[in-house]
Write a structure and sequence with these properties.
67% helix
Length: 190
């Protein structure tokens, strides 16, 4: 890129598009699988070594390989379907959050335009509504990022939310406090 200094990210990219540095595997899958891989490698070496030392061709029935391949195919298909189902349910959950946030923003804008709700803090409500999915994303990824919230909320408030045990619940609590005056004025007519 023009104007970028050796290896630095370009400043014209939004923060959401800047790639995140790869992190170590938090579940330590490689350490869990490595002993099993080593065991299979040693067993394979032992079988090949016995075959080479015996200097004669072994006759193997292909039934065992066929059965093993079929069972592994069924297990992999089941695991693939299960993984895709979990992925699809996560997509559905994010779509629900998007839809609810959009509806709340639309309702808040209607209430803000109504003269009898002049005390409703619409800008603050919308800022916190935008901060909700950001804080939820940070919570799910396990990577608190105050600068990402600084674009939406004041620094002090963003840092308080990031330091909370459950940042997304803290944002929901603030949203609930912001609509308390509206709930107090509800006459039951909707």
């Amino acid at each position: 890129f023009e104007g970028s200094e050796g290896g630095e990210e370009s400043s014209w990219l939004p923060d959401a598009l800047v790639t995140i540095a790869p992190q170590r595997d938090p579940y330590r899958i490689a350490l869990r699988v490595l002993p099993l891989i080593l065991l299979h490698a040693l067993w394979s070496c032992a079988v090949v070594g016995a075959r080479v030392l015996s200097r004669r061709a072994w006759r193997c029935e292909p039934l065992l390989h066929t059965l093993t391949g079929s069972v592994l195919g069924l297990l992999l298909a089941f695991r693939t379907n299960q993984a895709y189902s979990r992925y699809w349910s996560a997509c559905g959950a994010w779509a629900t959050i998007h839809k609810a946030s959009h509806n709340l923003a639309r309702l808040a804008s209607q209430l803000y335009l109504d003269e009898k709700h002049a005390h409703f803090s619409f800008p603050s409500f919308v800022r916190h509504l935008v901060a909700l999915p950001i804080s939820l994303k940070q919570r799910l990824r396990g990577t608190p990022d105050p600068p990402e919230l600084w674009a939406v909320l004041p620094r002090e408030e963003a840092e308080l939310i990031v330091r909370a045990a459950s940042p997304h619940l803290a944002v929901l609590a603030v949203l609930s406090l912001l609509i308390l005056p509206l709930r107090a004025q509800d006459d039951g007519g909707g």
